């Protein structure tokens, strides 16, 4: 079962593409992309634009290969009727000073950001999905570390509500092309590889911008080898090269100076170009109709799986699913 | 056209009963009763209980004689899908310090109260009712003075959004039975007359508790007359006695000492007992089915009145109403 929130997050595809957001223990998991969050945190974006971006992002999620019969993707603004009662329970149990402490918000921040802390957390609880999740089902949340304050507060509330606490797993941030001390920026193209880049752009960006941990000259590289910990091409390969044996070989050869930065970059370019081409082809196959199917919470295919499910596999007598 | 929010407000019936919440200029008006507000501001109440109270309150509103073909009553939690996008626009434009200044909230207050400021204001704008209000329709809000900070902020936001600002009219608070310097309390029965009281209880409360502005003795009353400004029975008659001529006669006679407190209380008892009996009889006629009709935003009878309405009275080609 996968629950995915469709918002306007820039690089969210990685969580899906690399499998961090996959089913665990046959329960629930969620990858957060929120149209309302985007709207509240980006002064320049209108709500309709955030909703459109959310819809387009859903195509990227779907292109990663999720099974529609087990996946529900939603935009917060579409699904708010089910989220809101749960969010209210959470909001009632978080004080302003807790929220300011946890998120570092200031008095000049808009009040929507505070409210959003609870909206963000509400899909962590099965009662947000009454038409297809069994009450008490525990939620599993793969998340980037910057989302942690939300869910730590949320786990505290769960305790007081005697609801099952969501389980969290943190994904690492990928370094920007310029290295660990730098940040990817949506407005600075050279800082990141985009899923919309052409293979040529991918290769060019890697060659030109990816920070090298190798020697400054051929001689230095051959003499001292590369520092893998700060080498962006190697760090990226660790994420995207599926063949662990090859990765180990590259690591050894590169660290010892036997392999050169250019060769590692070439291999990374091949790997990412293939991945991006595959993703772009898969994404082309995703039409609006398929997105609407993923976004429909009242599908029979979802209900049968969860409401009144019996061990024999035969559906038990089902309660009427609540309209959403 | 009347929009009424069904929550758990205690004395809200007055606004309807006395007509403050009636149609104005064929536009919109709203009387706020919010299940989410009740929940966030009352530590002891659960959300389901607030929703139940909201439903029961709707019966009191309906019993005041609203026309179902022109009236939409809603609980925030039911109608949040339409309110939320508008609330987001408002939340984005109100900072924490504005909200703290306007409402006097503290850091120990729950974050829901801050968010609610925007939910509260969202029905002030026609885009919250896309299936039956013409875009740009101005809203008219009869309100108690304590609600004013919400709507003052909301008018400021409207200005920046170039949305029509809601028009406000303030209703006075009725003094508690014990007089102007005291407060009605839901937990102290002797402070207020309830619409659920029997005529006998009404008369007894008025006789026993209503603060008199008359003389302490028969002689004093005859010599000095009554101070109408602090006399609760007279203040109540000003609200509930429909016959303005009789009210003036009573005022003159009572102020001059010709009429005694007991007589004024007797008249008030008759007036209120009759009003309450009528209301209770009308309320008995309101069944759950009628409430559901008032609470259905997708009724044809509402849409025909507003969407694509033409001056000739013939319905123009209608856009599909959005599902809620």
From TrEMBL, chains A, B:
Domain of life: Eukaryota
Record Gene3D superfamilies: HUPs, Tyrosyl-Transfer RNA Synthetase
Signal peptide: none
EC number: 6.1.1.2
Keyword Iron: no
Key words, A-Z: Aminoacyl-tRNA synthetase, ATP-binding, Ligase, Nucleotide-binding, Protein biosynthesis
Region (Disordered): 301-324
InterPro entries listed in its UniProt record: aa-tRNA-synth_Ic, Rossmann-like_a/b/a_fold, Trp-tRNA-ligase
Family (UniProt): Belongs to the class-I aminoacyl-tRNA synthetase family.
PANTHER family recorded: TRYPTOPHAN--TRNA LIGASE, CYTOPLASMIC, TRYPTOPHANYL-TRNA SYNTHETASE
NCBIfam families: trpS (TIGR00233)
Protein name: tryptophan--tRNA ligase
Organism: Prorocentrum cordatum
